Amino acid sequence: MIKRYSILAMAVLAMSGCAHDEKPFFAPSESELQDRSQLSGADQAVLMGKYQHAERMLAQYVSRNNSGQLRMKYFGISGENRKHAIDTVATLLWETGRDDSLKQFAKDYLSGSEYQTTLCRISERQAKYEEAYHCWNEMGEIDRAERVVRTEAALRILSTP
Known about the structure:
Number of domains: 2
Structural class: mainly alpha
Shape: elongated
Distance between the termini: 93 Å
Strand order of the largest sheet: 1-2
Helix content: 55-70%
Order of helices and strands: HHHEEHHHHH
């Protein structure tokens, strides 16, 4: 009876990967871990307001083409790390107020609600209140659309002598 359980236990260990020293097939590579660390550092630099440092850390993932548009590098980076790089670049562009670059970058690399939200936020920040209102309303974000109207009304009241 004990022999059967020990054979069963060995089979389970062998199938689960605990019986040998090899890495499981889904373990991230060393370069993937380095990319993840580099991107986390860039993300932290953006959050701390160290934008030039973040730009230097992101340089291996993003470059500008001949027309000046930002382009992500496709080769040598995993899908998860690529998404992290895209999010970090978008945050950097937002935090530094580079709305035109952000709009173009969002068009190229964001989709769905992420893209639409970015456009709405840019319109709102640029005080294009009617455009922002319609943008949020089309997304079904009624509360945010109403907030835009209230913000515009408050600014009008405050600006009148």
